[in-house]
Amino acid sequence: MSEKAKVYIALVHYPVYNKTNEVIASAVTNLDIHDIARCAKTYDLDKYYLVTPIEEQGILVNKILNHWREGFGASYNSDRKSALDIVDIKSDLLDTISDIENISGKKPKIIVTAAKKYDKSITYSLMKSEIANSDCPYLLLFGTGWGLTKPVIEGADHVLEPIVGRGDYNHLSVRSAVSIILDRLFS
Amino acid sequence: MSEKAKVYIALVHYPVYNKTNEVIASAVTNLDIHDIARCAKTYDLDKYYLVTPIEEQGILVNKILNHWREGFGASYNSDRKSALDIVDIKSDLLDTISDIENISGKKPKIIVTAAKKYDKSITYSLMKSEIANSDCPYLLLFGTGWGLTKPVIEGADHVLEPIVGRGDYNHLSVRSAVSIILDRLFS
Fold first, then answer.
1. Inter-chain contact B172–A179, Cβ cutoff 8 Å?
2. Alpha helices in chain B (DSSP H)
3. What confidence tens digit (pLDDT) does each residue in A97-137 have?
4. Which residues of B touch A39 (CB under 8 A)?
5. Which of B51, B68, B138, B151 is most buried per CB count within 10 Å?
6. What's the predicted TM-score (pTM) here?
C-alpha cells in the first residue's frame, strides 16, 4: 500500500432499491453510523460519508454526531468520538465525489459491491493490489435497503465480487458486509 | 476443512465487564440477534447461541424469533427466517456447552477473542487449519459490553489474536468483530 492511500467510504441511502425494486431514499439508522464509523476508523479510512437527500435525516445525524463529538458522549467515550470525527453528511453522490476532489485534488475511482458478477467484477486481492499501487483516491459505495441501483453499479469503475461464505446463504447486513470488505482490502 | 466442521457461536451477555470493569449481565439487542444470525448463516455455522441469565430477556428474544420464524416476518422475509432458525437461547455457558455435547456427542473446544495477546494466542491461519483438520466441535465465544471476563478467556482452549486494522484504533462493534472473524476463519 502506498504510505497512506486515500480511501473514502459512503453509505448510500438514495438511490437504492426497496423490496419491490422501486428506487427509494432509505432511513438512516443510528447503528449504521456507529458500527461503520468504528470499522472505517479501524482500517484508517479518511472519511465516512452518509449520503441522504432528506434534510430531516441530516439534521438527526448531526444531533447524534454532536452528542458524541462535543456533548456528554465525547467525555463518556472518547474512542467513539474519534470514530465519529470522520463522519460527514452529503445530500447526494455528486456532492460526495466533489468533496473528495476538493480534499485530494483528484476525482476518486468508484468501487461498488453487488450481489451478482459483472464483466468488470474484480477479486479482493486484485482490488487490494490496485489500491496499493495507485495514487488515486478511492470511494467505496455501499447501498442500504435492497442495494445500490443498477445505474450506480454500472457507472462504477470497479464492482467487487459478492462475498461468498460456506453455504448458499448470502444475505449479510450492510454492517457485516462493510466490515468484511474493509478487512479483506486493508488488513 | 473437514466436509462439515461443526462450529457454534455464542454471544455472551454474562459474565462480561462494564466500562468500570465490574462483572455484569448486559442487555440483548435486536440487531445483535439479526446481524450475527445472518453472518453465522452465511458461513454455515451450526447454531448461534444468545447467552443470558435474565429470564425476561429470553422471553423478549423468543418474541422476536417467533415473529420472524412463524409470524408475519416469516412470509415477509424468508431469508431472515432461515437465518434466525439457527438461533437458540441459553441461560449460561455451561448450558451452551452441554447442548453442543448433546448434539455432537463431544465436548466443544472453546475459542475466544481478546483485546490483548495471551501465551496461548493463535493466529487466524493456524486456527483455520486446526478446525479444518479436527473432528471436534468448536464453540466461538464473543463478549458484549466491555468484553468477556478474564476467567472465561483464561479457561478457553484458544485465544484468537486481536483484529488489527491499518491504524492504532481498535474498537470494533461486536457485530463487526464477528463478521471479520467468521470471514477470516471460514471463507
1. yes
2. 30-42, 55-69, 72-76, 78-84, 93-104, 124-132, 150-155, 174-186
3. 999 999 999 999 999 988 788 888 999 999 999 999 999 99
4. 172-173, 176
5. B51
6. 0.95
